[in-house]
Amino acid sequence: MKSENTPFRGGPLDGRVLPILLGPTGHPPKWYEVPVPAHGGRPPALYAYRREPAGYTKRLGLQRGWVYVYVPEGRERRELKWPWSKPTPKQEPGSEPNE
Fold first, then answer.
1. What is the DSSP letter of 12?
2. Whole-angstrom Cα distance, residue 71 to residue 50?
3. Are 47 and 71 in contact (CB under 8 A)?
4. Which residues pair with 51 in a beta bridge?
5. Residue 51, exposed/middle/buried by CB under 10 A (0-12, 13-18, 19+)?
6. Percent composition of the chain: helix, strand, coil (DSSP 3-state, to 5)
7. Phi, psi values for residue 69, rounded to 5°
8. Cβ atoms within 10 A of the Cβ of 8, count?
9. What is d(CA 53, CA 62) in angstroms, rounded to the nearest whole number?
10. pLDDT at residue 80 in the model
11. What is the pTM of this model?
12. 26-50 burial by CB neighbour count: b if 16+ within 10 A, else e?
């Protein structure tokens, strides 16, 4: 498998460069998650990093590579939007879901 040295910005991995495996398209995954097990009475944690372009060249505007940026809120969850799907009702804060 092919890998690429990718820098990390922010969070606990700030400044580190790790080899990340590339997918079939030649790009690293959009999200990189680092699980941290429970230790010393602290609960387990999951650090999330989002892939962003590292920059662009001046002359042709070509992308220079990728960098992972720390997202303290965690990975955003998305739902599939099919044309035949009903929209999910929004839950009001403080209300319990209907069962």
1. G
2. 7
3. no
4. 68
5. middle
6. 5, 35, 60
7. -115, 135
8. 21
9. 10
10. 78
11. 0.73
12. eebeeebebeeeeeeeeeeeebbbe
